[in-house]
């Protein structure tokens, strides 16, 4: 098949394209390179089945991208605005999704949308189920919810296109993906920041008391679930949690990263306001119910956290050495 992938030079986009090309598909990748990196996609040009377009997805359409696509996989987005940028997050996530939905509609292509576990918000009822767990969003004065709200709006828009334009769509809610090509900042997640801090012999900054939990999913598993949803028509019209179910605290994650790197960590516990400068409402636990993805797609995350982090640390060291 011929695929359009937005956010192509980013973490998930580049790993997904690697899989798509390995499976024999043709790929057109789009990225504005604001967070993505050319080095992530450099190997793909050798295949002869990859073309890259640098541009802003909110401003692109058929004239620039064409219409010869079987699938439109929309990964490009702005994430949680920790340091400001609420309007940019809302604008990019709405307008980018709308532009790619229109492209898919005109092209007659299936639309696969990258959503987020953040849409479940602060709901205390675990594990999070696609159909049975309500979204519990915090105060509008907390900028972090702009991301969740934008993705919730996008999900409704995606399903609206399905209902009103008979467009084949699939929504994927990702949980804590990490691995090679991750961004070396909070954009990439806590494990990314911990790895780089230890490489620089700097303290590990723990926000709050570190007892908040997450499930971290190695990128090969995330890509596997995504690929299954892209190619399998049984995924049409469905919403899937894609992630691991192994729950760990942020503090334990920091200690594990240090252990794997052979370091004695210096831990620095800081209040959220010290890095956001304003109200920040965290989610204390986040665990997915992945039974729906297992039943429909045959998906299950299989990479142990220790093994996945070991691979990620090796990759990061190789980038620094190179």
Defining traits:
322 residues; alpha/beta; globular
Present the secondary structure layout.
Elements: E1 2-6, H1 11-22, E2 26-31, H2 38-41, E3 50-54, H3 62-65, E4 71-74, H4 86-107, E5 110-116, H5 145-165, E6 169-174, E7 177-178, H6 190-199, E8 204-207, E9 213-215, E10 217-218, H7 219-231, E11 238-242, E12 247-249, H8 250-260, E13 267-270, H9 273-276, H10 291-297, H11 305-321
Parallel strand pairs: 1-2, 1-4, 2-3, 4-5, 5-6, 6-11, 7-10, 8-13
Antiparallel strand pairs: 9-12
Structure report:
- With 322 residues, the chain is of the alpha/beta class.
- Helices cover 39% and strands 17% of the residues.
- It contains eleven helices and 13 strands.
- It has helices at 11-22, 38-41, 62-65, 86-107, 145-165, 190-199, 219-231, 250-260, 273-276, 291-297, 305-321; strands at residues 2-6, 26-31, 50-54, 71-74, 110-116, 169-174, 177-178, 204-207, 213-215, 217-218, 238-242, 247-249, 267-270.
- Strands 3-2-1-4-5-6-11 form a seven-stranded parallel β-sheet, sandwiched between helices. Strands 7-10 form a two-stranded parallel sheet.
- β5, α5 (145-165) and β6 form a beta-alpha-beta unit.
- α1 (11-22) crosses α7, α4 runs parallel beside α5 (145-165) and α6 packs across α11.
- The longest helix has 22 residues, at 86-107.
- The radius of gyration is 19 Å and the shape is globular.
- The two termini are 34 Å apart.
- 45% of the residues are buried.
